[in-house]
Design goal:
Blueprint lengths: L1 E5 L5 E4 L6 E2 L12 E5 L5 E8 L5 E11 L5 E9 L3 E6 L10 E7 L7 E12 L2 E6 L6 H8 L2
Parallel strand pairs: 1-5
Antiparallel strand pairs: 1-2, 2-3, 4-5, 6-7, 6-9, 7-8, 8-11, 9-10, 10-11
Length: 152
Protein backbone atom coordinates (compact mmCIF):
# COMPACT_ATOMS: atom_id res chain seq x y z
CA UNK A 1 0.00 0.00 0.00
CA UNK A 2 1.26 3.48 -0.87
CA UNK A 3 1.83 6.04 1.84
CA UNK A 4 0.71 9.60 1.18
CA UNK A 5 2.94 11.89 3.18
CA UNK A 6 1.72 15.34 4.21
CA UNK A 7 4.26 17.68 5.77
CA UNK A 8 3.61 20.68 8.00
CA UNK A 9 3.67 22.80 4.84
CA UNK A 10 0.96 20.74 3.07
CA UNK A 11 3.46 19.41 0.56
CA UNK A 12 2.47 15.99 -0.72
CA UNK A 13 3.35 13.30 -3.21
CA UNK A 14 2.13 9.85 -4.15
CA UNK A 15 3.18 7.57 -6.99
CA UNK A 16 0.78 5.42 -9.00
CA UNK A 17 1.68 1.73 -8.43
CA UNK A 18 0.62 0.89 -12.00
CA UNK A 19 2.47 3.44 -14.16
CA UNK A 20 4.83 5.25 -11.75
CA UNK A 21 3.44 8.73 -12.48
CA UNK A 22 3.22 11.23 -9.60
CA UNK A 23 -0.42 11.68 -8.65
CA UNK A 24 -1.24 15.11 -7.26
CA UNK A 25 -3.78 15.12 -4.44
CA UNK A 26 -4.97 18.23 -2.64
CA UNK A 27 -4.36 17.58 1.09
CA UNK A 28 -7.37 19.77 1.92
CA UNK A 29 -9.61 17.15 0.28
CA UNK A 30 -8.28 14.28 2.39
CA UNK A 31 -10.85 12.85 4.80
CA UNK A 32 -9.06 13.52 8.08
CA UNK A 33 -10.97 10.85 9.99
CA UNK A 34 -9.84 8.13 7.57
CA UNK A 35 -6.23 7.01 7.26
CA UNK A 36 -6.96 4.78 4.24
CA UNK A 37 -7.91 6.67 1.11
CA UNK A 38 -8.44 5.96 -2.60
CA UNK A 39 -7.01 7.81 -5.58
CA UNK A 40 -7.36 7.56 -9.34
CA UNK A 41 -4.43 8.05 -11.70
CA UNK A 42 -4.56 9.46 -15.24
CA UNK A 43 -3.80 5.92 -16.46
CA UNK A 44 -7.12 4.76 -14.97
CA UNK A 45 -5.63 2.86 -12.04
CA UNK A 46 -7.60 3.19 -8.79
CA UNK A 47 -5.46 2.45 -5.75
CA UNK A 48 -5.50 2.76 -1.99
CA UNK A 49 -3.03 4.74 0.07
CA UNK A 50 -2.45 5.52 3.72
CA UNK A 51 -2.23 9.08 5.01
CA UNK A 52 0.73 9.95 7.26
CA UNK A 53 1.19 13.39 8.80
CA UNK A 54 4.89 14.02 9.46
CA UNK A 55 7.32 16.87 9.88
CA UNK A 56 10.07 15.02 8.04
CA UNK A 57 10.11 12.64 5.09
CA UNK A 58 10.71 9.06 6.21
CA UNK A 59 12.63 6.70 3.91
CA UNK A 60 12.15 2.92 4.02
CA UNK A 61 15.52 1.21 4.34
CA UNK A 62 17.05 -2.09 5.41
CA UNK A 63 20.34 -1.36 7.17
CA UNK A 64 22.21 -3.57 9.63
CA UNK A 65 23.24 -1.98 12.88
CA UNK A 66 23.39 -2.26 16.61
CA UNK A 67 22.11 -0.52 19.71
CA UNK A 68 23.24 -0.16 23.30
CA UNK A 69 21.09 1.04 26.19
CA UNK A 70 22.60 3.80 28.27
CA UNK A 71 22.64 2.96 31.95
CA UNK A 72 21.47 -0.64 31.48
CA UNK A 73 24.31 -2.12 29.47
CA UNK A 74 22.02 -4.10 27.17
CA UNK A 75 23.23 -4.37 23.56
CA UNK A 76 21.87 -5.98 20.46
CA UNK A 77 21.85 -6.19 16.69
CA UNK A 78 19.16 -4.35 14.75
CA UNK A 79 17.77 -3.85 11.28
CA UNK A 80 16.98 -0.18 10.63
CA UNK A 81 13.56 -0.13 8.89
CA UNK A 82 13.22 3.58 8.18
CA UNK A 83 14.99 6.89 8.70
CA UNK A 84 14.19 10.58 8.73
CA UNK A 85 16.10 13.68 9.76
CA UNK A 86 14.42 13.49 13.16
CA UNK A 87 14.13 9.80 13.95
CA UNK A 88 14.55 6.11 13.25
CA UNK A 89 12.49 2.91 13.35
CA UNK A 90 14.34 -0.34 13.89
CA UNK A 91 13.75 -3.98 14.71
CA UNK A 92 15.83 -5.80 17.29
CA UNK A 93 16.96 -9.23 16.10
CA UNK A 94 16.37 -10.66 19.57
CA UNK A 95 13.91 -9.82 22.36
CA UNK A 96 14.95 -6.74 24.34
CA UNK A 97 14.01 -4.70 27.41
CA UNK A 98 13.72 -1.29 25.72
CA UNK A 99 10.91 0.89 27.11
CA UNK A 100 9.55 4.27 25.98
CA UNK A 101 11.78 7.12 27.22
CA UNK A 102 14.89 4.88 27.35
CA UNK A 103 18.04 6.47 25.93
CA UNK A 104 19.95 4.36 23.41
CA UNK A 105 22.91 4.71 21.15
CA UNK A 106 22.33 3.34 17.65
CA UNK A 107 25.03 2.60 15.11
CA UNK A 108 24.46 1.75 11.44
CA UNK A 109 26.11 2.26 8.07
CA UNK A 110 24.44 3.91 5.07
CA UNK A 111 24.13 1.73 1.97
CA UNK A 112 25.03 4.44 -0.55
CA UNK A 113 28.43 5.15 -2.12
CA UNK A 114 29.71 6.98 0.99
CA UNK A 115 29.04 3.96 3.29
CA UNK A 116 29.09 6.52 6.12
CA UNK A 117 28.86 5.09 9.64
CA UNK A 118 26.16 6.88 11.62
CA UNK A 119 26.21 6.86 15.44
CA UNK A 120 23.31 8.62 17.16
CA UNK A 121 21.89 8.94 20.64
CA UNK A 122 18.12 8.44 20.54
CA UNK A 123 15.13 8.39 22.85
CA UNK A 124 12.68 5.49 22.44
CA UNK A 125 9.24 6.99 21.75
CA UNK A 126 7.25 3.78 21.25
CA UNK A 127 7.93 0.06 21.46
CA UNK A 128 5.90 -2.71 19.82
CA UNK A 129 7.45 -6.10 20.56
CA UNK A 130 10.85 -5.99 18.80
CA UNK A 131 10.08 -2.81 16.79
CA UNK A 132 11.20 0.53 18.25
CA UNK A 133 10.43 4.05 17.08
CA UNK A 134 12.95 6.58 18.35
CA UNK A 135 13.75 10.26 18.07
CA UNK A 136 17.28 11.64 17.75
CA UNK A 137 18.39 13.48 20.90
CA UNK A 138 20.51 16.05 19.11
CA UNK A 139 21.34 17.51 15.74
CA UNK A 140 24.90 16.79 14.78
CA UNK A 141 27.42 16.46 12.02
CA UNK A 142 25.56 13.50 10.50
CA UNK A 143 22.61 15.67 9.52
CA UNK A 144 24.22 16.61 6.19
CA UNK A 145 24.93 12.96 5.29
CA UNK A 146 21.42 11.88 6.30
CA UNK A 147 19.80 14.70 4.32
CA UNK A 148 21.74 13.73 1.22
CA UNK A 149 20.95 10.02 1.75
CA UNK A 150 17.22 10.66 2.29
CA UNK A 151 16.95 12.65 -0.92
CA UNK A 152 18.36 9.88 -3.13
Amino acid sequence: MNIFWISDHNQSTIICPNCGIDVSIDPKKIKVAQRRQKAECKCGEIFEFTVEYRRQFRKDVRLSGEYSMQGKGQKGEIIVKDLSLSGIRFESLIPHQILPDDTLEVLFRLDNSSKKEIRKTVKAIWVDDRIVGAQYNERDSYEKELAFYLNF
